[in-house]
Amino acid sequence: MQIVPGIPARTASGARVWPWESADTRGLRVVPAGHGPADGAAGHGGDGAGAGGPVFETPGGLQLDAVLGVDGERGLFAASAEPTERHVWSYALETGPRRLSRGPGVHDAVCGGGTVVIDSRTPEGDTVTVVRDGVPVGRIGSRAEQPVLTPRPTLLRLGEARCAARFTCRRGTPRGTASCPCCSDPYAGPALRVARRCHGWWTCVSQWLAEQGFAVLVTDGRGTPGRGPAWEKAVHGDVLTPVLDDQVEALHAAAAEHPSLDLERVAIRGWSFGGYLAAAAVLHRPRVFHAAIAGAAPADQRLYDTHWKEQFLGHPDEQPAAYDAMSLVGHGHLLRRPLLLVHGLADDNVLAAHTLRFSAELLSSGQPHTVLPLPGATHLPVDNAVTENLLRFQVDFVHRSLDSSAPDPARPRGTSAAISSREAAP
C-alpha cells in the first residue's frame, strides 16, 4: 500500500486513522480503539459495527491525498474526487466526512484547538480562511508579490485514458491561427500532479514560455496521484513506457483539438522525473520529440534513493533488468536529437553524478549534446538571476534546435564528441 502523509495517526480516544485501498480508490478509515486491526475492521462498504463502536470510512471514488491533522476526536484529510482539484475534509466518527474547502482549486489546511486554517490556491488567486466550529470567521491577508503575467491555461482531458492536461498559448492568439511549435513541459512522475485547477509559479512559467512563441502542454498520465491505486500502479516495473506513451497520445490529441500545433516542431523539457522523461523522449521517440531539455534528471536508476525506486522497480539485485531498461545510461547511443542537460552541482537529491555519467556515455559514443552545470545550485535553483537566465537559455536552445532542419532520426549523426549547443542543433 502507498505511504500516505500523516499516517499513522490516532484520535484523543485512541481510534486508529488508517487508509483503505481497492483497485480504484484509496480512502480513509477511522477505527475505534478495541475494534480490531484497522485493515480488517469493516471492509469497504460494510457498516463497521463492532465492540469499539462504528467505523468511519470515506466513500469510493474519493482519493485520499494526506491526513492533515487530528484535533481531539476530529481530524482533517485532503482528498480528490477528480484529479485537477484537492479539497480539505473533516472526519468524525459520529458525523462522517464533511468538505470544508469551497470552490474549485487545490486546498491545504492545519488544525488545532477547534480552529482550522485553510490555504486555498484557486484559478482566481490564493486565499487563507480561518474556520472555527465549521464556520468561516475570517481571512488572513497575503503580502506575496503578484506575478507580472496572469496565467490563462485551458484544462483538457486527452487521449483514450482521458489524461488531465493544461494547455497554454500566447495571450490574444485566436484559435486556429498560424502554426506554432509545441513545448511539452510535464513532470508526470508518481509524486506530483501539475495539471491542476489553480495557479502557481509553474503556471506562470508556462505562460511565459507561451509568450516566447510556444504552445505549452502539461500532461499528467499514468503513475501520477489522484486517480486511484490502479492508475498509480500502472508504472510498477516500468516507470517509463506507459508514461511516455501517455505523453505522445496526449500531444496528438491536443493537436486534434488545436490544429495550430506544429507536430514537426515539438520540444520537451522537464526537471527531476520530468527531466528524466524529457531525455528519454528524444532517445526513444525521436520522431515525435525533436529537442529536449533535461534538468536534474535521474539518469541511472541505481544511483537514486533505494526506498523510492524499490517501490516501483523492486530490489536492484532481484530486478536488475528493470533498472537497466529504465535508466538513461546504457541508451545514450540512441540520441539523434538536440539535448540540453542541466544540473546543480550541489544537488543532494538527484546527485550531479547522474548527468556526468550520462554525458560521459554520450561523449564516448560520439553523440553531440549540451551540458549546463549550475555551480552551487541544489535540486532547484533558488537564485533569481540564475533562474531568469536559465529560462532564457532554454528558450534560445529550443528555438535554435526547432528552427533548424531536422535530420532523419534513423540515420546516425557524426562522430564528433564536442559538447556544444551549436553542434546539438539537428
Q: What features would you describe in this structure?
A:
The protein has helices spanning 201-211, 229-232, 241-257, 273-284, 306-313, 320-326, 353-364, 384-403, 421-424; strands at 9-10, 16-21, 26-31, 56-57, 63-71, 74-80, 87-91, 98-99, 106-112, 115-122, 125-132, 135-140, 154-158, 163-168, 180-184, 215-220, 261-271, 291-295, 339-344, 370-374. By secondary structure, the chain is α+β, with helices and mostly antiparallel strands. The chain has 2 domains: 9-140, Prolyl oligopeptidase, N-terminal domain (Methylamine Dehydrogenase, Chain H); 154-424, Alpha/Beta hydrolase fold, catalytic domain (Rossmann fold, 3-Layer(aba) Sandwich), CATH 3.40.50.1820. A hairpin with a 6-residue loop joins β7 (87-91) and β8 (98-99). The protein is globular, with a radius of gyration of 23 Å. The model is unreliable at 39-50 and 411-426 (pLDDT under 50).
